[in-house]
Amino acid sequence: MYIPRRYEVKDLDQIKAFLRAHSFGILVSVAEGMPVGTHIPLLLSEGAEGKLSLLGHISKGNDQRHTLQDGALVMAIFSGPHAYISPRWYTEMNVPTWNYLAVHVYGTIELMEGLALEAALSEMVDYYETGRPQPVKVSEIPEKTYKDDLRGIIGFRIHITDLQAVAKMSQNRNDESYRRVVKELDASVDAVEKEVGQIMKGMRPGADERASSNADPGGAGPAPAGGGAAE
Q1: β-pair type (8-9, 153-168)
Q2: Neighbours of 17 (CB within 10 A)
Q3: What is the reported pTM?
């Protein structure tokens, strides 16, 4: 993934937290030279010695199953909150852009069946049911319903070989422009845009206080390679 240096996230704990919070991703593999993808939950699992993997499954009716062989290299794409950023919000006119969070995960497939698959399904159900008023356990599902569903899926674990994470959140803007962007996002009626504003506040604590006295009258500050909308 293309990641300008100032936007790269290397903190593993932050990346793991992101993957757990935004676990509905796109599984990408290649079939006869053509990229294919499926939108599915992929749950981060941490094993012995901190080894990371993703748990998932797809329908046996999905043609992508033919690409999922033991050892096959795949990619999973996870997106977080994102928002359009208008140049009207800066202290000096510039080009529009987009703020966003994303993680790309690369790894190799290990197919699962039998008890291994059932354990993975239980782990996923337990995770997604946590915190609900009456959390469901796999053992509560009628056996015939559960077994019928089990026969219709292909289970797998993705052993993670590489993690690439980006948080593009107006880091290249001076405090005053940054403060204005946060203010506009806070005022949005869109919940996702508001969330981007909250994330920005956490990334540059105190920017509001610094902005009025330390703002660069030049406005936009140094731009990353490629400029605004293509950052």
Answers
A1: antiparallel
A2: 12
A3: 0.87
Residue 18: which pLDDT band, with cuts at 50, 70 and 90?
very high
Rounded to 10°, the helix 191-203/175-187 angle is 150
98-131 per-position pLDDT tens digit = 999 999 999 999 999 999 999 999 999 999 999 9
Q: For residue 152, what are its two tokens?
A: 């219709």
- On whether residue 208 sits in a domain, the answer given is no
- Alpha helices in the chain, H assignment, sequence order: 12-21, 114-129, 143-151, 175-187, 191-203, 207-214
Give per-residue burial for 22-36: e unless 16+ CB within 10 Å, then b: ebebebbbeeeeeee
What is the spatial distance between Cα 107 and Cα 72, in angstroms, rounded to a whole number? 8
d(CA 194, CA 82): 10
195 Cβ contact partners less than 8 Å away, ≥ 6 residues apart: 81
> Containing domain of residue 104, as a range?
5-172
CATH assignment at residue 59? 2.30.110.10
Q: C-alpha 18: how far from its chain's center?
A: 6
Question: Is residue 56 pLDDT above 60, yes or no?
Answer: yes
Q: Is residue 231 part of a domain?
A: no
Q: Are 45 and 53 in contact (CB under 8 A)?
A: yes
Residue 48, pLDDT score = 84
Number of domains comprising the chain: 1
Q: What are the contacts of 115-118 at 24+ separation with CB within 8 A?
A: 116/155, 117/57, 117/150, 117/153, 117/155, 118/150
Q: Which letter, b or e, does each residue of 186-203 get, where b requires 16 or more Cβ atoms within 10 Å of its Cβ? A: eeeeeeebbbbbebbbee
